[in-house]
Amino acid sequence: MAVRPSRPSGQPQSSKVSQFKLVLLGETSVGKSSLLLQFVKGQYQDFGESTIGAAFLTQMVSVDSAMVKFEIWDTAGQERYHSLAPMYYRGAQAAIVVYDITNTETFVRAKAWVSELQKQASTNMVIALAGNKADWSANRAVEYTDGQGYAADNSLLFMETSAKTAMNVNNLFLAIAKKLPKSEPLGGVAGSAGVRGGPPVDLRQPTQTSPAQCCGN
User: Fold this and answer.
1) What is the side-by-side strand order in the sheet with 94-100?
2) Which of 91, 114, 192, 213 has the most CB atoms around its CB within 10 Å?
């Protein structure tokens, strides 16, 4: 029996659903969980607990005439959980490596994650680099051109984001979805049963959101 996903009101029906595993990586407190919450539920929390091990959510997005289902693993950034990371990025078709633009060390750590993915993960993985907390640009420690240049040198997607204002959050996932092959069958990933996702997101019209000078995770 075919599974027909729900979709935004008024959007054309599409029988094609592509499913992909995506992993979020980065140092603790760079805002990985906040980016995920903003993308899946359109919410932001000023104070959130650190992820322990990993968290899992799903989200359906619409790209042109296709539906893409992201199965997203949000990994813990603490060093003691580093050894668990391969369990989550193994078999993933996409990864978002996140750093905090106000913290140079998190950018250095993001580069280490990219290097690890390039050596250990699938050669076909779509990797995106996200400079988060763009709403704190007044306290910037990592220049936009530094992130952009590193991404260009390593064939990565790159955007600066703000989980607080939603700046580029949807656009980042849209860019990833556009680069993924739309040929994966709708199927299960271990641990996905019963996990809550948000309402489908129509990414055909990118959100235009200007950053504010405030805190963001």
Assistant:
1) 157-160, 126-132, 94-100, 17-26, 66-75, 54-63, 201-202
2) 114
